[in-house]
Design brief:
Immunoglobulin-like, C8orf32 fold, eight-stranded mixed β-sheet, 12 helices, globular
């Protein structure tokens, strides 16, 4: 029985004229045997295993001499539960950038090695959750212990300026293979990250450049609390390094990219657009700003309050004249508009392009356009950064996926009468812990009938914590405002009776200018219990619910926080006359496991008791984003310290 060369059988590839454009025999084996890969695992205890993940990028010239790209995916999965079978009853075909589905097929191999070929009718068309058309294999006949094998080959527009593939998922992979094949004149550079094998030359193909990597026993990647799953997955980044036919090395370097970015954004506005720019500068009241930082903020605030961000590639959202007509822009369009406003205002601005560290980290040691995902603006005079497209953020605060990451900073330079862009890779630093705070100032006393706790509760939110709330006040409906304000106070506990709320510095115009201050008074029986003549005060509950970290399985990922932060707590409790606190010493805690290494996180609480006035001060702080996996238990002890404080119940006993 011959091998199933499905390229020809299914799509009539030879007739299509594509037959000479790629070199690999993409096929199924007649007698599949994957035991050498799956045999390394205890299959009886495994729910799902990716036995083989094979992917190939092949570049070729078509009959017209244009460069095209083929993307081949070959997957073998072992399924051993009904859930695993259900998860794989639809296998989606990636049509990202694809122009033609060249070949495909799928089959199920039973535990008895019986083969059920699903054939071309297995490919179905439907819509995904976003209403987009998708194609998928409808897999039937799989049972526990089966192998599901499929492949597809798509033809797509060639991309050589930088791309990457990810090779780690929520199941273990026995073997991963990645190949890059290109014509002799095209030489690619690659970067393997997070433990994937390095791509190495293979000489088995004549008249082709052939890079190949094989990685065995890739562990599954589960999301973990305080862990960056996306940023830590195994990946390969690849980019064209040399076209020997043109003799030009690194044609997609950052110098060229910087010029391209600058030229695209700096293009002179039309007369009508220039007039609109002047109108915005006047309407923003920047002339009343006390300094340059205030000018920058006022312009940004005006634009974000009068224009809408739309996630779309529509060219009109990138053209200044259309932006003014539509009052809308996309990521590039928002950056373009803001840049021209600051240029007209005489404010030096640098354009920044970067990636989210939760998707792929910007590697400062490997040039690749694949990192270029999001635009920012940097103001060197005040050393602050903004994201033009982020409507609910303001100067000095950008979404935390883009901090603690590198970016390409493009600065305007003049060469004679010509302006161009010069780029430099620099770190976008994480903000210090003091930048993001949640502070509590609490005064509490038991009421006269000893059935409730009366509380004056003041909260201050800054940085990312303020960003959670301040922008909401700009958009929330009036009939929902009271409920929203009460929900902020009730973060301490749901079972409280709110008597008053007064909130200062509402709205995005205060973000990074003034902290959100929430003053409230409430009473609650929740904090009190009785045990005979004793009063049990749930003192720890006054700081609100706290996260608690459990680790039943071995930790896979290093610790990575979203942002640095600090919590300050100042609690005053008036002890009722005739009572004393039996266990007041429990309030003293000191967990600082990183003191020897720069004090990256800690929890401290102390108290004073003078007469009937108990004053407790607490501080919980996280001054660095990342901790190695080996320090996870230390980090966990800090997180759990707050949870342990939250559990403290003070025993108030009568004085004889």
């Amino acid at each position: 029985m011959r091998k199933l060369i499905l390229l020809l059988m299914i799509t009539g590839l030879a007739k299509s004229g594509f037959g000479q454009e790629f070199s690999m025999p993409y096929l199924f084996e007649d007698k599949p045997d994957f035991s050498s890969l799956s045999g390394k695992y205890d299959l009886k205890t495994i729910d799902e295993l990716e036995v083989l993940d094979e992917r190939t990028i092949e570049y070729a010239y078509n009959s017209e001499g244009a460069l095209i790209e083929f993307f081949y995916v070959h997957i073998v999965k072992y399924v051993n539960s009904e859930d695993a079978i259900d998860r794989n009853n639809k296998i989606y075909v990636s049509f990202y950038r694809a122009t033609v589905l060249v070949a495909y097929n799928a089959r199920v191999i039973s535990s008895k090695n019986e083969i059920k070929l699903l054939g071309k009718d297995a490919l179905k068309e439907g819509t995904n959750e976003d209403g987009q058309k998708v194609q998928f294999f409808a897999v039937s006949g799989a049972e526990k212990g089966s192998l599901i094998e499929y492949f597809y080959l798509v033809k797509r527009d060639a991309r050589v300026s930088g791309n990457y593939l990810t090779f780690q998922s929520k199941m273990p992979t026995a073997k991963s293979v990645f190949k890059i094949i290109s014509p002799e004149n095209l030489i690619f550079s690659t970067r393997s990250i997070n433990g994937y094998s390095e791509m190495k030359p293979d000489t088995t193909l004549s008249e082709r450049n052939y890079l190949k990597a094989e990685t065995l026993n890739i562990p599954k990647m589960d999301n973990e609390t305080f862990g960056n799953e996306g940023g830590n997955k195994m990946r390969v980044i690849y980019q064209l390094y040399l076209n020997t036919a043109k003799g030009k090395k690194n044609p997609y370097n950052y110098g060229i990219l910087s010029q391209n970015i600058f030229d695209a954004i700096n293009i002179a506005p039309t007369k009508s657009a220039a007039k609109e720019i002047d109108k915005i500068l006047k309407s923003s009241n920047m002339k009343f700003a006390r300094d340059e930082e205030s000018k920058i903020f006022k312009i940004e605030d005006y634009v974000k309050n009068h224009f809408e961000y739309v996630e779309s590639g529509d060219d009109r959202l990138e053209n200044l004249d259309d932006i003014f007509k539509l009052k809308s822009y996309n990521d590039f369009g928002s950056t373009k508009l803001m840049y021209h406003l600051y240029e007209a205002a005489g404010i030096e601005t640098e354009i920044v392009n970067t990636s989210s560290r939760y998707t792929i980290r910007f590697d400062p040691d490997f040039d690749s356009w694949s990192y270029m995902d999001k635009y920012l603006l940097y103001f060197p005079s005040i050393q602050k950064i903004m994201m033009p497209s982020a409507t609910s953020f303001r100067l000095g605060l950008i979404p935390f996926g883009y901090i603690d990451n590198y970016g390409l900073f493009v600065k305007k330079i003049k060469v004679g009468d010509i302006s161009t862009g010069a780029g430099r890779v620099k770190l976008i630093p994480a903000y210090p812990a003091e930048h993001t705070q949640h502070n509590m100032i609490i005064t509490a006393k038991i009421n006269a009938t000893q059935d409730s706790l009366d509380v004056n509760y003041k909260q201050e939110y800054m940085g990312y914590y303020a960003q959670d709330f301040q922008p909401v006040f700009d958009y929330i409906a009036k009939d929902k405002l009271k409920e929203f304000e009460e929900s902020i106070v009730k973060t301490i506990h749901e079972d409280i009776h709110i008597k008053s709320i007064r909130i200062e510095n509402k709205g995005t115009e205060n973000l990074m200018i003034n902290p959100l201050v929430v003053n409230s008074t409430f009473s609650s029986a929740h904090f009190l219990d009785k045990a005979g003549t004793k009063i049990l005060l749930k003192f720890g509950d006054l700081i609100g619910p706290q996260a608690e970290l459990y680790q039943e399985k071995e930790r896979l990922l290093p610790v990575e926080n979203d942002f640095n932060r600090v919590y300050n707590r100042d609690i005053t409790f008036i002890v009722p006359d005739g009572y004393r606190i039996k266990n007041v010493s429990e309030l003293k805690m000191e967990i600082q496991p990183f003191l020897a290494n720069g004090d990256g996180a800690g929890f401290i609480s102390s108290y004073t008791l003078e007469g009937n006035k108990l004053q407790v001060k607490g501080k919980e702080y996280y001054t660095q984003l990342k901790f190695p996996k080996e320090d996870y238990e230390k980090y966990r002890s800090v997180i759990n310290a707050a949870a342990n404080f939250n559990k403290i119940v003070l025993v108030l006993e009568k004085i004889n």
